């Protein structure tokens, strides 16, 4: 039983590699399908056909797609992410400039949202049907029902324009003290938490209630196990799998899906890099970002699955 | 306190048969009856609120355009972001159009598209999630790889490629939404189903030689319905919000029509003056999504109470 | 010309007269200027004194006292992309343009009348009416890395645009330059394939600024401009600090300028109002009013001849029926477009692409009014009465969605049903622009009328949006380039505008103003170069900070 875990992790990692490969193939195919290529995007509205042809040649876009994909793949395998076609800088450097920002934002948001969401979900499940549950229900629903761009813009209007407490833009480069740090991250984190907490809290509650409805909990109740203990000791272990998956899904959003927050607060993260790369048909950059997001997602769901397996020994034999 | 628990009613028929087998395995489950609910009136209240809110928006979606005082594209006022007035109950938008008319006309896109897309995403995602745990290992892995790949494609890219390949239409918009949200539903329901599939009664059903669809529908589904429905409620919200981004990319709803999310987005400039043009559609989205979720919640709860 | 509220007694600001004085001192006599520049309003060439020559106007802008040295400001442009580059050849958005003029200088520079003034070139002259040009370089100019400016740098900076692989945005403008040669260590000669009296104006465009010979890595922004590049991260920000060795004495005023891009308009406005940035561009009329009403911030609107046009392909149905095209031009309710879509920040246009601020603007054409009955009759004649036609709009073409919706409403009055088809801004110019029978385009200001007409209306022009071909027009266009007599040349431009107004498939309802919002503490904002926002992108060295 014990040495099943490393084997399982290894198996997961190898299938993750397969997924990464599939994703790179699909992204490549989509990029080729999209109308307009890098050369056209670089030259813009006022490009002449000769220029496009010459730039295509220069960028190697005239090679067959398979050859280009092979070049990219072999480069990627040896750790060379290639050059960004749209601005001539190495992809690794572009990512390097922005990835720490994205990771930091994701880490802060995770550290704040996950405990709050899990607590809210647990409390709601324990007090199921009660006033606290209903209040939390309405609160989480209202949080998620407001469009993200509205929350962000409203926060800027109140805290930056009217009150002047916080800066409207989040410039990481101006951080000099802990106070600055808090001021800069307050609004982006707040906005992201609004979206994430609701989702995670509601899924936690639902997964627990599914368990609380099952007969073994009923049994425990009949045996006189107190409610808190019933939830924490009996229901929770069996709900860890779905909860961990819901959390992993929500968190995977934190790298690639925060484009609105990055745009409104002008936060230099990796999501806007990816969106630009798609607009510019900048294949190497799109691929690198996609690999990063996909890799992060796979790691998150792997951790989630491992949590599920550790909490439910029966899954180890599957 | 209200810690009431009940066994999902659908299992009841089968559980009688299974009970003996189960007792033989580890004796953890007993055919017991559920206690009566203590908080029934409250539940009903929430259900009625949900039903009222959601029903209201369904009615607006169906008949709203007939009630609109102006054509939704008509420029009827010189004042932009106008406030409430007799002529314009919900004020005017960023170009001086009547907000009430625009909402009455636009609601049907949001309600219709989001309901269909949320149902489809959950059906596809949860369906595959449940079935795959019963499939051979290699096939399960294959399906998981496909969904993991789908979830890793940026939704903007997906939308762009669909617009360029197939043009723009409402079914396409739904397809884009389903492709974006089914993989998440799959993830969650798959992890739920994996847990359930290890339980004795499923193993027993397998040994009994029950078909995969039977096991999925009768043995697994009822035990994860709460999570699946909650997930669907969340997905409904996300799809409502996704639509506005999609029509921004040229997929689906075309001007002068606009869905509720697009109405918020195009009038966001009026937020600083507290314009109704941005508050009204935001409230509409709020009431619609909260109503839908309350309704969904009460649906799963009412299933428990039915057998009383 | 600046219409400022203090009246007409300050037609020439101290700063302007200083400039003129320097220009004269540099060896450019007024007479020479007249002869070489060949720009209308000749009596004022090089002095910038004649009112009414340029209709660039400024609202709420005033000079705010005397220039001051020092201060650091943050400027936000409306576009932000990881494709930003300090390579002048690749400049494509406002933020690229601003950075180019911040870090680099050209041989010439536009003044408020769009006349090319000496910059890195101290003098320039043509001995044969525009066929060959000799530019004499200013002495003692150094690049930011200390290297002295030589003719080789000029040759490299210009000729690199001719290599298609560089991907230059101005290849078509540079095409006419056959060669650039060094005559000695101060003078360079430009040999053109055909005479062009506007070469000095062409050399003032942002893409043709001078970079050191042999540069391939532009990430350091080494130029001869007023500021040196301290930091540049594409899509994030750039920091420019004062170049102490700048060749123009006394400039720049500011210590540093930080440039960022904020693509979301309400985020940009909020950043200005909260004091996080001090100048923003690309304001819509709705937000301009909001900025104007806020204490401590101001608005400046410049009409530079930027327009969004309805493109009706005359080589496809239904644009191939002249009556249909004419009907569409009558279906624009121009007043309403200006009032509703632009909130007044624009100028009514008359389907002629040359803006009233241009010396070649022809004001003899009767204004086309909204006339649904006439349009209905024309549509009937064209055989498309009651038809349903699709029109492509996109966020990429400014205000096209609003204009499309207004057109849809006004066309319904004439019984024409318009189906709007909104397509993504992403990839619009390569995939949709000029490719649909009916769609919208957007044309930024060009430095000269001739460039504009050559690029967008000549039969062989690569961006002849409507596919309109007219031999008479082509002949007039070529002849105008070497016509020495000003009156005759004006007549040629008038004829060309009449042809476009009557026959081409381009409908231009309004000119869009470039609207900026800025912190009231910024001084020097009364300068207006009608080429685009940020004083034609050249604001960096002219503004100061009153704090």
Automatic annotation (TrEMBL), chain A:
Keyword DNA damage found: no
Classification via Pfam families: BPD_transp_1, BPD_transp_1_N
Annotated ranges, domain ABC transmembrane type-1: 99-304
Keyword Membrane recorded: yes
CDD domains with a match to the protein in the record: TM_PBP2
Membrane-spanning ranges: 103-126, 138-161, 181-198, 239-265, 285-310
UniProt keyword annotations, A-Z: Cell membrane, Membrane, Transmembrane, Transmembrane helix, Transport
GO cellular component: plasma membrane
InterPro entries the UniProt entry points to: BPD_transp_1_N, MetI-like, MetI-like_sf
Domain of life: Bacteria
Gene Ontology BP, a term: transmembrane transport
Cellular localization per UniProt: Cell membrane
Membrane topology: Multi-pass membrane protein
Family: Belongs to the binding-protein-dependent transport system permease family.
Protein name per UniProt: Peptide/nickel transport system permease protein
Lineage: Bacteria, Pseudomonadati, Pseudomonadota, Gammaproteobacteria, Oceanospirillales
From TrEMBL, chain B:
Record keywords: Cell membrane, Membrane, Transmembrane, Transmembrane helix, Transport
UniProt xrefs under PROSITE patterns: ABC_TM1
Gene Ontology cellular-component terms listed: plasma membrane
Entry superkingdom: Bacteria
One Pfam family, short name: BPD_transp_1
SUPFAM superfamilies: MetI-like (SSF161098)
InterPro entries assigned: BP-dependent_transpt_permease (IPR050366), MetI-like (IPR000515), MetI-like_sf (IPR035906)
Cellular compartments annotated: Cell membrane
Residue ranges of the region described as Disordered: 1-24
BP term (GO), one: transmembrane transport
Domain ABC transmembrane type-1: 107-296
Main location group: membrane
Transmembrane feature ranges: 45-64, 70-90, 111-139, 159-182, 236-254, 274-296
Membrane-topology annotation of the record: Multi-pass membrane protein
PANTHER family: OLIGOPEPTIDE TRANSPORT SYSTEM PERMEASE PROTEIN APPC, PEPTIDE ABC TRANSPORTER PERMEASE PROTEIN
Similarity comment: Belongs to the binding-protein-dependent transport system permease family.
Name under which the protein is recorded: Peptide/nickel transport system permease protein
Automatic annotation (TrEMBL), chain C:
GO-annotated cellular components: ATP-binding cassette (ABC) transporter complex; outer membrane-bounded periplasmic space
Superkingdom, natural source: Bacteria
Localization (cell): Cell envelope
Stored InterPro entries: Peptide/Ni-bd (IPR030678), SBP_5 (IPR039424), SBP_5_dom (IPR000914), TAT_signal (IPR006311), TAT_signal_bac_arc (IPR019546)
GO BP terms, alphabetized: peptide transport
GO MF entries: peptide transmembrane transporter activity
Keywords: Signal, Transport
Main location: other
Domain Solute-binding protein family per the UniProt entry, residue ranges: 115-448
Coiled coil: none
Stated name of the protein: Peptide/nickel transport system substrate-binding protein
Organism annotation: Kushneria indalinina DSM 14324
